[in-house]
Design a protein that fits this description.
By secondary structure, this protein is an all-alpha fold. The chain folds into 2 domains: 1-188, Farnesyl Diphosphate Synthase; 190-283, no CATH class. The protein contains 16 helices and 2 strands. Strand 1 (82-83) and strand 2 (86-87) form a beta hairpin. Helix 3 (35-46) packs antiparallel against helix 4 and helix 4 runs antiparallel to helix 6 (95-113). It is globular, with a radius of gyration of 18 Å. The mean pLDDT is 93.
Length: 284
């Protein structure tokens, strides 16, 4: 469902800037776990909303996530040459086109959410709340701010508190926004929203800790990128600050917290409980 809609929303390549559109498609349609759009749709479903109407908003989150990956991989940022086992966007298309491809996905996300079709499907108030949540999570107090903390922390020993703040912004904010968007699009009540937020906060932190663990003991071929880069770049991680076994235990605790947060949804929450467990045990 998500893949088909992403394909539908992307521009076709018959124009003067075909290379740019090709670069956007290269990264957006490159698979991925689709964690964030899945959260939008699942919380919309759990709260009694129209999943089809929420689909463009779920795709918008993935566009924002993908734009951030393209920009993060640039030489002036994290300088990564591989993404999901393929050359990063700037290695395939050049830094100039990669920068524009990220910009294109960022703006397409908001055009998608605020299109006449989306407004008609969910109502202007719900669309505005969802767009606000996404903009806030992607901006200076969310993903962008987290990246700035990351850049300024390179080669430095940072505290666990600083690391957690960075990851809450850089990774967790968009995951939390995805859950909030699903609730907003369904007109969820306060109890449902609280449950969604507790779940998203727990899996967001667990997701980042698993990333740190995989950088130590993951397989490069499975991950689609080099391992050991955190230690090589002298980056503080949950593994370096807590130790490998304590980090693994923390993932278990956070996953348990996420599953318990779903109790207000009863049996209907099982799919998201299983989703949290699968993220905790992932190998890529």
């Amino acid at each position: 469902m998500i893949e088909q809609k992403l394909e539908e929303l992307l521009p076709k390549e018959h124009c003067r800037y075909e290379r740019l559109i090709e670069a956007m498609r290269y990264s957006l349609l490159d698979g991925g776990k689709r964690v964030r759009p899945t959260l939008v749709l699942e919380f919309c479903r759990l709260c009694g909303g129209d999943v089809q109407a929420a689909l463009p908003f779920a795709c918008a989150v993935e566009m924002i996530h993908t734009y951030s990956l393209i920009h993060d991989d640039l030489p002036c940022m994290d300088n990564d040459d591989l993404r999901r086992g393929k050359p990063s966007n700037h290695k395939a298309y050049g830094e100039d086109t990669a920068l524009l491809a990220g910009d294109g996905l960022l703006t397409l996300a908001f055009a998608t959410m605020l299109s006449p079709e989306s407004l008609a499907a969910v109502g202007a108030d719900c669309a505005a709340e969802a767009a606000f949540q996404l903009a806030s999570a992607a901006g200076i107090h969310g993903m962008v701010g987290g990246q700035e903390i990351d850049l300024r922390s390179e080669g430095k020993a940072i505290s666990l508190e600083t690391l957690q703040e960075m990851d809450e912004k850089k990774t967790g904010a968009l995951i939390l926004a995805s859950a909030r968007m699903g609730c907003a699009l369904a007109g969820a009540d306060e109890r449902q929203r609280d449950a969604a937020e507790h779940y998203a906060c727990a899996i967001g932190l667990a997701f980042q800790i698993v990333d740190d663990i995989l950088d130590v003991e993951g397989d490069a071929a499975t991950l689609g990128k080099a391992t050991g880069s955190d230690a090589e770049n002298q980056k503080s991680t949950y593994v370096s600050l807590l130790g490998l076994e304590t980090a693994k235990q923390r993932v278990k605790e956070l996953t348990h917290t996420a599953v318990r947060a779903l109790e207000p949804f009863g049996e209907e929450g099982k799919a998201l409980a299983d989703f949290a467990k699968s993220l905790a045990s992932r190998r890529s």
